[in-house]
Amino acid sequence: MSISLTGRRPKGVLFDLDNTLYDREAAFDRWLIWFLDEVLKLEGLEERAALTAEVAAMDARGYGSKRAIFQRLRQRYPAPPGMPAPSVEIFYDQFFTQMRVEPETRALLAALRDADIPYGIVTNGSRIQARKITEMGFDKGTDCVFVSGLVGWDKPAGAIFEMAARKLDLPPSEILFVGDHPHNDIWGAREAGMRTAWLHRGQTWPAETCGAPPEIVLDRVEDLIPLFA
């Protein structure tokens, strides 16, 4: 993809986490395969396909309730005597082993560091998000990390974007926000005065709810590398 910006190159970059800095959907798919194989030990193709579709729908790209998922799983597949029932805590312990940071994403972050472009992460969620950031090593390149559950503001509230801009010591207009969620990431960042790059992940831009499209539409987050190389 050819990427161009109108005006000056941004002086700072902020990223969403899930499905932006790493492929959260691919990690979830790997976890689900592990769960079907190692925990439920399902062999029937039809049952596997039906359960995969049901769990993916309940997960809703990470926005669904994990507790609801495991409540449903425990109803359908009670744990044998002496075995722990599937739980959210067990889910995350295994999910962390399925997370991957693509080499191209590492290359983008290296290009930002080489160009002296500060960057940070702004994500909705709980302490689990902070643990993800640490597990994947993203905290080693920046101390600008804002997790909504730890700071008291969820995207798209302007306050969390403003806090991150202050941490980068830049006005919002000099910052490019990169994310996959049209409303929480792109609309919210734009309302806070930032420039925006949308990682579409196969979605169509919802103009009826989020207004004008972002300045940049990305097939992959690493498509930004030429801007900063």
Automatic annotation (TrEMBL):
<protein>
    <submittedName>
        <fullName>Haloacid dehalogenase</fullName>
    </submittedName>
</protein>
<dbReference type="GO" id="GO:0044281">
    <property type="term" value="P:small molecule metabolic process"/>
</dbReference>
<keyword id="KW-0479">Metal-binding</keyword>
<dbReference type="InterPro" id="IPR036412">
    <property type="entry name" value="HAD-like_sf"/>
</dbReference>
<dbReference type="Pfam" id="PF00702">
    <property type="entry name" value="Hydrolase"/>
</dbReference>
<dbReference type="GO" id="GO:0016791">
    <property type="term" value="F:phosphatase activity"/>
</dbReference>
<keyword id="KW-0460">Magnesium</keyword>
<dbReference type="InterPro" id="IPR051400">
    <property type="entry name" value="HAD-like_hydrolase"/>
</dbReference>
<dbReference type="GO" id="GO:0046872">
    <property type="term" value="F:metal ion binding"/>
</dbReference>
<keyword id="KW-0378">Hydrolase</keyword>
<dbReference type="InterPro" id="IPR006439">
    <property type="entry name" value="HAD-SF_hydro_IA"/>
</dbReference>
<dbReference type="InterPro" id="IPR023214">
    <property type="entry name" value="HAD_sf"/>
</dbReference>
